[in-house]
């Protein structure tokens, strides 16, 4: 397959880039974090979204070296932003299940933190509920090792998985990211509003941090604020942007 061959070469040729999307605390107005989102600057096809190559990277195992590149680059950028005297800002990185299961994940992250100098508490790892469908003891052990490094763990796309909620009391996690599918119609669909309210109540009683994704309108922002959600991410605040544009955005924020 042509695309697979090119994907294998893309790392050597330095064709990947990271965009970042700000996460905002709507009470203080501050940017509290950035989610790193990979893109492939393909020599012919132009800028490719991860939906066009992450599944192939997962099938071929290339997600492991690609994911390591993402972690290193995100930690470097995070360290640079913290040295520019910015407010403390977390950098969130998406982890595929295959990366999570990799034997050397914890060591690799430790090395990347040492090498880049990023304080561990500023690195957030986004995993999905799909990990809960695997061997619970192994997953708990791995998560505990990661937490011991000092990094934060969040559950991405929360509410869309097929796992039971029992993992929430077994796994050492810090944060839920409510999936954007519940936000799209939240101001008009009472079912979405009920689901989001219930997740907020659950996060509060389990003492988990919470962020909503996919906030696109002020109506959604105000509605979510009233429901008790204070950290948000979405096009309303900013699209994912390359570093140079983010530097400008941070200047003006
Ligand atoms: O940024 P965008 O909406 O195009 O991302 C599409 C999907 O690709 C999202 O589900 C996102 O989580 C995933 N994605 C983006 N960057 C990474 C990455 O570095 N690693 C993994 N595993 N997934 C990513
Ligand atoms: O699966 P994950 O949550 O990591 O995916 C994040 C994806 O959501 C990114 O690809 C990003 O481009 C996209 N995204 C971020 N904000 C919004 C938004 O407000 N609306 C929509 N439709 N997509 C968004
Ligand atoms: Mn994510
Ligand atoms: Na998500």
UniProtKB/TrEMBL annotation:
Coiled coil: none annotated. Residues 1-253 form the EAL domain. This is PAS domain S-box-containing protein/diguanylate cyclase (GGDEF)-like protein. It comes from Tumebacillus permanentifrigoris. The chain holds residues 442 to 694 of 695 of the full protein.
